[in-house]
Design a protein that fits this description.
By secondary structure, this protein is an alpha+beta fold. It has three domains: 7-88, no CATH class; 124-230, Beta Barrel (Butyryl-CoA Dehydrogenase, subunit A, domain 2), CATH 2.40.110; 249-382, Butyryl-CoA Dehydrogenase, subunit A, domain 3, CATH 1.20.140.10. It has helices at 7-23, 35-50, 69-81, 90-103, 106-118, 232-245, 251-267, 269-272, 276-304, 313-335, 354-361, 371-382; strands at residues 123-126, 142-146, 149-156, 167-173, 184-190, 196-201, 210-221, 225-226. The longest helix has 29 residues, at 276-304. It is globular.
Length: 387
């Protein structure tokens, strides 16, 4: 892996930096877990698309720039450096988008990807069910074939962004006699279809970041199926690979958090150094963020050369989720009792959004497949250990 950027890559970085400097909002957008903030972020997605920055790796005719993964990582570095808003459509652009590129028909790509890039259609996931969380092979929601439609019945839960999303992608059991990962089909479902009920689930901060989705005789056209009938497990595993291994959590996100953590430590060094473990934790956080960055560049180079994301995606997921927790826990220890203040509290001062970040980091070892499940995958598929 060559760690020196080419002149073309540096020119791309400069172009991205200048556009972001000119277009990133001066004031932070409201949380996309509020209706107003959701709409603000949808408008930001449209603005990104106007500059063809919505998803730079997509083909130009679908709203992208035809960039490779190295250029995407460069863009992400500039994006987080500029303090740009988080992506409300991350389930679509980072997870479903690449899956559509691999498994979708030409008609499906033309139908879904442009509107995904503009933020006109926001996507949520339909993976987890009440008795099938990280164990997706235990899915029971049914999709029964009726001519040129599927009739869907069942329930999905913990669906991020589902409260105001437009579409849901998920797996449904199309063979009622099947068990485990067989007989599952990957289906795209418009959330305004009759028979769908979306019920918000409050997060720790009280905002509806998640939702339950109930399906009661919901009719969805067969052409909303992604991949073959009964092939849903293979399609979903490709999506999970993007989620755990590369696209969902770019290293720039954690490098920016590590940078902020170092600055926080410097501002509070006199009190922080009363506990030598704090300084060591700050240094470890910075090194781990850099290590994750280098590993991701290595993965990107391998994929550009024709490689695939395999079971090692599980190691990435464990690493970045636990790194996120450790960095925010260290920040709270530096701030002491003031860390309990929300950023808008009258006496918050410079506490920033560390508490918000810490609360969110607690979900990291759960979403994208719990870390316990990821350790099982590593043990069985990478180390060859028995079940």
């Amino acid at each position: 892996m060559n760690l020196t950027f080419t002149d073309t890559q540096e020119a791309f970085r400069q172009e991205a930096r200048e556009w972001l400097k000119a277009n990133v909002p001066d004031e932070p957008l409201k949380s996309f877990d509020t209706e107003e903030g959701f709409q603000q972020h949808r408008e930001w997605e449209a603005k990104l698309n106007e500059g063809r920055w919505g998803m730079v790796t997509w083909p130009e005719d679908l709203g992208g720039r035809g960039c490779d993964l190295i250029e995407w990582l460069v863009f992400e570095e500039e994006y987080y450096r500029a303090g740009a808003p988080l992506r409300v459509n991350q389930n679509g652009i980072f997870l479903l988008g690449p899956t559509l590129m691999e498994y979708g028909t030409d008609a499906q790509k033309a139908r879904f990807l442009p509107k995904m890039a503009t933020g006109e259609e926001i996507w949520c996931q339909g993976w987890s069910e009440p008795n099938a969380g990280s164990d997706m092979a235990a899915i029971r929601s049914r999709a029964d074939r009726d001519g040129d439609h599927y009739v869907i019945n069942g329930q999905k839960t913990w669906s991020t962004r589902a409260v105001w999303a437009d579409w849901c992608f998920g797996m449904f059991r199309t063979d009622p006699e099947s068990e485990r990962h067989r007989g599952l089909t990957f289906i795209l479902v418009p959330l305004d279809t009759p028979g769908i009920t979306v019920r918000p689930i409050p997060q720790l901060d009280g905002l509806p970041g998640f939702a339950e989705i109930f399906f009661d005789d919901v009719r969805v056209p067969v052409d909303c199926r992604l991949g073959g009938e009964g092939d849903g497990w293979s399609v979903a595993m490709a999506t999970a690979g993007f989620e755990r291994g590369l696209l969902l959590r770019s290293p720039a996100r954690f490098q920016e958090t590590a940078r902020r953590l170092v600055e926080l430590y410097k501002c509070h060094r006199a009190s922080a150094d009363r506990d030598p473990a704090v300084k060591a934790a700050v240094m470890q956080a910075w090194m781990d963020a850099e290590a994750y960055c280098l590993t991701t560049y290595q993965t990107a180079c391998r994929m550009i050369s024709g490689g695939k994301i395999g079971a090692e995606a599980s190691t990435n997921k464990i690493f970045w989720s636990e790194l996120d927790q450790a960095m925010h826990a260290t920040a709270l220890s530096i701030l002491g009792a003031r860390a309990e203040l929300m950023s808008h509290a009258p006496d918050a001062g410079d506490v920033g959004n560390w508490l918000d970040g810490w609360l969110f980091s607690q979900s990291g070892p759960i979403y994208a497949g719990t870390n316990e499940i990821q350790r099982n995958i590593i043990a069985e598929r990478m180390l060859g250990m028995p079940r």
